[in-house]
UniProtKB/TrEMBL annotation:
This is glucan endo-1,3-beta-D-glucosidase. GO terms for cellular component: plasma membrane; plasmodesma; side of membrane. The keyword Disulfide bond applies. Residues 284-370 form the X8 domain. One of its GO terms (molecular function) is glucan endo-1,3-beta-D-glucosidase activity. It is an enzyme of class 3 (hydrolase). The keyword Lipoprotein applies. SMART domains: X8 (SM00768). It is found in: Cell membrane. Belongs to the glycosyl hydrolase 17 family. It comes from Aquilegia coerulea (Rocky mountain columbine).
Amino acid sequence: MVGVANEEVLGIGESPSVAATWINKNVGSYLPATNITAIAVGSEVLSTIPHVASVLVPAMSYLHRALVASNLNFQVKISSPQSMDVISRSFPPSTATFNSTWNSTIYQFLQFLKNTGSFYMLNVYPYYGYISGDGIFPIEYALFQQLSPTKQIVDPNTVFRYTSMFDAMVDAAYYSMGALNFSGIPIIVTESGWPWLGGVNEPDATVENAETYNNNLIRRVLNNTGPPGQPSLPVSTYIYELFNEDKRRGPISEKNWGMFYTNGTAVYTLSLTSLDTGNSSSRVFCIAKHGADLKSLEAGLDWACGQGKANCLTIQVGRPCYEPDTLQNHASFAYNDYYHRTKSSGGTCDFGGTAMITSGDPSKLPHCFSISISCSKTNVDLQYLWII
């Protein structure tokens, strides 16, 4: 994904030729060696530089026209990251609407995304939602941590239970689009993270909270499900940010969102898979029971790969996890993939009594399942390249 700087949006929005030049210079000259799939036009334009709002959609349209002329419009999509500030009230999600100040622009913006098959880019910051809530929400809710029964967050209109503020914010954007009669536009979270250092008045900006948030964010995204209101639409996410910005203006926390110091050393450690929680004793896997009825096992495998939407491509003939070609091996791979994708939203490890939970080092599991776990981890690592 490449970005149009905020200071460039006005010029591009006023001139098709400037847009064409920008595409040739920043996209065309790097293809096909570089896999460019999207252009982010500005960053939070509506809320940070409102005087440019009137040319945001024209800028996007001119850039798209240049892509069409270069036959790149099917490969490269155009959108513009927006902050949660364009949504007047984000909770409960079911009543969320866009700020009426931007109704005309937002409508044109969404129409462009719909017409071009693009996606809504959203910057999601539970850190700000938590501190601005002034104690309304528990910090566990902001950090993807388990909530006690007395702290459950429920939308009273839909009765959806929200286990994280991240999911509630994403759903608020979906409901806001729905309020303008737009559907089918997927959301990509272009920024999300947590600061690890703040001033005396920023007590929640800590290394522990930043490490907890980003590790839990990775696990949440790799479940490959959407929020309660759109469970079938996974939320691809970019972590903000790789490096600290030591010269950035504003509060101390503004300089300290990075996973790395400016000298390249890590601030804290990230777990790169949805399976590894950082504590080997807590890792669990869903595998097929030995001795399970073969017909029931086959039915469970068919359901996991079909209605359960498990990723079963790697156990097809000729793919990395096809061997050993046994029902036990294939079912274990599919069961585990389904379980880890859906457990945060209620998915179980049962499959008609043919599955069981086990824990420990995957290398000590049966040989066929060790291969499946290895392949699963490889897939997750590849997805992590997208999440950052």
